[in-house]
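Lecture 7 notes: from sequence to structure.
We start with the chain below.
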Amino acid sequence: MPGAAATGAPRGALGGLVVRSLTASRHGPSGVALRVAAMATAAIGAALIHRVNDPGVLCPLRAFTGIPCPLCGGTTVFIEMGSGRPVQAVLANPVAFAGAVAVALAPLGWGRRWWALRPGIRAWVLGTALLGSELWQLARLGLLRV
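Predicted structure tokens for the same chain:
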């Protein structure tokens, strides 16, 4: 099967399904639907696991220093979405939430637009987003007074 070796998918019926799904996830509304389904499955799974066993703080930087990283709250975004609480998900980390939305909508052409930007502009956008996320985390956890 063409493409099976490139994706590492096994040959046969299941391998063909995997290859077709990976190909479909790159383009159009079906790609968005597949990505949203995968993300929803992961979010619901994370929420169920968290309900049974709360591991506490997962961020190594925050665990050792008490200072959150810009991506702190990313796991909480998925747990809250999987629990059906979208407002709490956005409040946990708006940048991680926006990133998940961008990944889900990339097959509609947003991914091509992103990669069409000059590298310096992409770096500036990401740097600004990470700085904003860090300030949000510091304020959210009471380490920065606003």
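Points to note: The CA atoms of residues 79 and 85 lie 9 Å apart. The mean pLDDT is 83.
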